[in-house]
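Predict the assembly for these two chains.
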Amino acid sequence: MTGRYLRSLAAVTMIIAAMSAALIMVSRRPITPIEGAVLVTQGRLCNPSGTARDAIPGTDCSSGRPLVLPAEMLQEDVPDNPVLHGQFRVATIGPTDEMQAIYLPKIAQGAQVFINGTLVEDMGAPGTSPLLHWGSPVLVRVPPDLMKKENVIDVVVTGFRQDGARLSPFFLGPFQVLQPRYDLRWWFTAGGGIAGLAFAVASTLFFAGLALVRPGNGEFAWMALAAALSIIFASHYTFMKMPLPFRWWAVLWNLAVHVYVIAIYKFVNLYLNVGRQRYEHLLWPWLALITVIAVMVPVEYQRHFFFFLHVGSVGIALIILANLLYHRLNSPGVDLYILFPLLSLILTIDLRDMLFHLWRPQPFNMQIGQLSFIVLLGIATYLAVSELLGSLTRLENLTHTLEDRIAASTQELRETHAEAVRAERDAALAAERQRIMLDLHDGVGGDLVNTLAYMRANAFDDPVIKSALETSLLDLALVMDSLEGMDTITTPLAMLRERMEPLLHASNLDFAWNVQEEPEFVEMTPANILNILRIAQEAITNAVKHSRARTIKVTTTRDTIVIGDDGIGWDTGKPKEQQAGGRGLASMRKRAAEAGLALEIEADATGTRIILHRGDIHG
Amino acid sequence: MAGRQHSVLIVEDHDHTARGLVDRVRNNPLLKVCGLATTLETGLALLRQHRPRILLTDLGLPDGSGLDLIDAAIQADWQCDPLVISVFGDEKRVTAAIRHGARGYVLKNSGDDDIARRILDVIDGGNPISPKIARHFLALAAKAPATGETESAVETLTARELQVLTLLARGFKRAEIADNLSISIGTVGNHIHSIYRKLNVGSNIEAVAKASKTGMM
């Protein structure tokens, strides 16, 4: 235990002491006179033995010991239930023709009330087990014809051995005058007890619901246990008949109070995520011990035992509050400002009732423990609402997170899908291209070669057919080169060199090969590549056939493709219809335009040059 | 003279093409045609029977793929260099054959002495390589370092080898490359041979098959 914790404990003790002092101050009101009624405070004790033996209504007790109310008959060493028989001589005030009443604000437990020898109220004759009537007021109707100028009122109160028989000051007066006071007190005491029981049940349901919905560390299960135990002592505040003999009922509800406090201790520690304390493993042995003692303790010491047990309960309650204060000051939470006052209030109320039950003479004329259950319900409501709000917030955050994730995933999926579609399309295109190429190769290509071989083998040397076949074969080769999809124009040009070199050599021409850079101005689609190859092929063919050149120079740079020769020119200087390359030139321009390129022809004394470049530079 | 002639087996299903090839090979005094087959089955039988020094095979045969013949030639217990007969020297077909160990290709319609020249080049240890095949090798070499797993299958090419490959892919002849890089033609040939070896082409079918499976090819 740190000094800081001890300071929390001290602070809590002082807070509770202050609250209890304030509560005691404001609630320690004696039973005050009612205007229009007689407040009876003095009489004679008829049964000095304190038992039913000499409590005989109707006997004159005017020679008995004076009896000043409030009075109590408590004889723990006598096995019988204590009986307090008081006889009071009271003069009637006011008119006697209306309904009169005796109003007993506080009495323990059952009583028989006689007026002028007539029994007017029977809540248990001496020698029987009386009704449990300590919490509620009693209003006895007295018909006017029973009334005299001087009345003799006998009140024979029967209590329990370990609790005593008690009688507080009471009133005699007109029913109309006393009834409102009775009603008011009834609402606070018996009515409050009924409401308290309802609140205890409701709290139990709330906490059980929370325990089911949010099992978590089990904190709400402990609180549900606490609330369920509170139903037991709420019943004690409420019902006049006990389910068990007084002794065992007292054992039950007093133990219930103690375990209730322990359960709240468990709840608070779990709720605050405070680690299990070393002494907590003593919990079950402790409960077993106090149960055994409670059962075994002799009736005459039961009250004392419970007094010490509840002193322990108060100690635990102070520790609960100290834990709450200590841990919530370390990590602030709004729940401190709700739970701490509410739990302190419960402790203060119950502390006062502990004094009411166990202190003698009783320091108050009314118990208020029944009002603590609404505070318990307040705690249940607060926790349920805060858990609900927490859940909603978490749900909202989760929804946002999920929405974001779904959006991201959708986007990703869309992109992946688009990419997959693209890849699939590309693959299908490539496969189809491959199939066409193989078909061309094996079918048309093989046949063309075979036909040429046939012509050669049979000395069938028709130059037109041979040239046509060779041109077709070359064109097919260009188509296939363009379809390779290699993302380059220099390699297809290189293949063109391979294919056309035999033609050049046959005409004693040579290539001056200057393909140094990959042109960057061509979009490398099969169609564009084929167009450029055909332009190059046309230019080379024209040079071979018409220019009388010695060398054909092919140059590539990033920005141009140039096919030039050192011949006399095959394009200019003749009428257009005679130009050997005329038709070829037109088709070259068309192909260049299709490839999005500009084609220029330079012809001078040094030769002819076909220049391909990006259209927007030179127009 | 006959004893110094290198035997050539030709497997080609187009009649006239086959006969044209036979004629052109025969025309070279250093070469003789030991057999002509038009189907895979006959080709395999003749391969075993004649134990030729050179195998010229078409790929699309009526009863199967010429690749099987190339495999048989590579696994033969005598030295037999396979070459592919191609109409166009198209990259996909020829590189598939080279993966199986073909030493290069001949074009069906090439000039009279071209086929014989290529065959003799291969016998001398040369590796006919077209610009397209060079481009394909370049693509392989570019991919190889990226796929760590295949590093053992394909050795990294030297800068000079990459230069040679690039120039080949742009259409330069060996002599031009030699000029361009100021080295001898023989050195260029050595580089090409080294490239073939490093890319495991023809020398390590298993590794290349593995590389092919791992997506390198």
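The mean pLDDT of chain A is 86. The longest strand of chain A covers residues 83-91.
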